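Q: Could you write out the predicted structure for this multi-component system? I'm mainly interested in how the pieces pack against one another.
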Amino acid sequence: MTSFLPLNRRGLLAGLGGAAALSLLPQVSFARTVGEQRFVLIVLRGGMDGLAAVAPYADRDYAALRGRLALPDPNAQGGVLDLDGFFGLNPALADIHPWYKEGQLLVAHAVATPYRDRSHFDAQDLLENGTVTPHGVASGWLNRALAQLGGDTGGRRLGLAVGQGVPLVLRGAAPIASWSPSPLKEADGDFLDRVAALYANDPLLANALKAGLDSASMADHALNTDADGAMDGAMMAAAPKPKAVHLDPAELGTATGRLLADANGPRVAVMDLQGWDTHAQQGTTAGRLAGALGNLSKVLVALRASLGPAWRQTVVAVVTEFGRTARPNGTGGTDHGTATAALLAGGAVRGGRVLATWPGLADDRLYQGRDLAPTQDLRAVMKGILRDHLGLDTGALDKAVFPGGGTPAAVRDLIRT
Amino acid sequence: MTLQAAIATNRFGLGARPGDIAAAQSDPRGWLEAQLAQAPDLPPDLRGVEDSATRLAATYAARKEKDEEARKPLREALRATYRDDAARRTRAAIATDTPLRERLVHFWSNHFTVSTSRPIVAAAVVPYENEAIRPHVTGRFADMLLAATRHPVMLAYLDNAVSVGPDSLAGIRRQRGLNENLGRELLELHTLGVDGGYSQTDVRELARILTGWSIAVERDRDTGTFLFRPNLHEPGDKILLGQRYSEDGMGEGLLALQRLARHPATARHLATKLARHFIADNPPPAVVAALEKSYRDSDGHLGEVTRTLLHQDAAWASEARKVKTPTELVVSTGRALGADIHPAADDGDTDMKAARAEPALRSLALLGQLPFAAPSPAGWPDQAADWVGPEAMVQRIDWALTVGEKLGDRIDPRQIAEQALGSFAGDATRQAVARAPSAAEGLALLISAPEFQRR
């Protein structure tokens, strides 16, 4: 087996902990404790305008309420792409529109977390910590879910943070890998051994380093070799060390998909997309929001392509901290709001549906007279995925993953059986 | 006093240059307090930077150019000015003789974050810091709040420049209206804090109060400067935080900012952020309380609050509880090596144009903290959990090794350890540096060591 990589880093793992090194071997025994199901959480940071991404074009109040931000009907020039005769996708999401007909795309609309104020930072914290209080706990619901999967993972890190840091939703007791492109030359095992020794009395740095090295090995394996462990020609061209720190969305999606597709790779990944805080000139089918939606679309398409056959066992959830005002503000944009849309995509999704108890857009139906009213708790959607896709039991979901008062029941039938 | 000198230069300064620890040795706190008393002069590296009005005017001109071919070089020139400014700012931090002041500039600039994510302000972010932040870091918070809030770069970044009172002349004529972005972030991030006791109504009211705070564009005089536009200002009384503001045009906003600066929630919010930055991610409540009191007693005098901080026992604790941000790591490495030399990878080819321009910027881009590129108006995070992810840790070490390989043959890492860390350096690190197989690896180990990664 050839690899571009750091056999030396892999060698080091034995020194850091035998268990970690095991994850490099093509082990089949993991299948007993770790399923083949994949879950990707894409967090749209800044508050995505759900009424622009998935427009309720047939709502009788929609056009008047949205004014110049209203998207035209499906039959019109630049119109929405119809889903079910009532909702339509923003044309910037055209590449994933066919997935809806294939039954691989589901929209949950008028969803919100329990958060009802309008601070990005508190809202994101609550979206990720899974409780009803911003900054209530320092761990994230997806990490706690991974901890519940339990069993012997052989030191394998089932969770992957795409990026240099680990977002709150993945922080906690379960070990997490992270990956981001770096053009730097990699330090060799001997040097890393000596650094690790210096970190003996610094648990924070020591744990980060150990996790980073595990991730590096995993990424080397997944990004540089194909499933048989042989170098794939096309990948050889694509896989060498990235020259850039910032990959474009498609490249990021591709790398993430490859890592997840690997037989011994992670099973759960989280990535962030920025650019959703569209206070001014957000546009409709062109402009800032369309650009952000286009990036999202590219990530999803790249994920599907790079996951290959594993796409059938994949659920991708696209979530954001809150929606935006239902009416445009005075500057062609929208301010911070409440309910919004979430997307579920993947071969394992029982899609082709828009899941919504539609609150309506009449003035008296808006939340506080200004926002799309929430009718579905986003936690219930996530619980449905964790239960029916990743196999967590209800008790664990209520006690450990989404603790806190009034936690809603899991949404049923999100997943193909 | 030796440990205190290491703390003064590393925790409160930006890392010791050769000779700094010795200079601080006799009176470490006095060494810092003397910096607070210095005049807020522009550092030499930044003296060539144009003012924000010039940069905004150039940006408007580029935007107005309809011909794509003619616009391209204008845009590229604007991007180049950002890179040059950002590089100068980094060099200024590496070279400064008053590192506490410069650290305060970075801190307050981050508090009042603006970002190149909005192309309209990208060429003016460093001028903004020079004009709105630098003059006030040891002055009154109320002055900085006003300078930042009425700065055209902030007004553009948080959309207030285009916010229109719905019942103003322009609002009625052009059917335009409010944008509440600045109103919200001013309350949540800049003054009261998210738990500071304001409501959605207060956000709207402050947005109404601030209508008209705008920027002179090309058809106005003094393009790119602050301009109050009465015809955008929402007429009538407003009520913010239970207090009535009678119609007074721009005066309403001036009064609101004064009151917000004096609000007890602002004192608490700023005290918490300062203590978190200098002492620990979860700062001791007693320190926060002391800073809060100092803020209130001094009517928001930031020099006085900083001085109070320097008189807290917890500030001088031997344990270095803060992990350096990438900026702090790159700057302190530059200072330790006594040079503006920041090598990065050898690939020589990246699509990060900002990074290509300048090795120090390149390092900052690689480590995830390009100047003025914070992901949101909240600025860069200030807690270890946000910076020491698995991948980030490995990249810090890879970067340290690259620095070592580039520069190790010119220096003696044992001497650098002594000069940069003094008695911060523990035996294990001293031995590892001394026993390294090469000077390159010795230097890389020093940069990777917990004593250098923390402050």
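A: Regarding packing and overall arrangement: Chain A has 15 helices and twelve strands.
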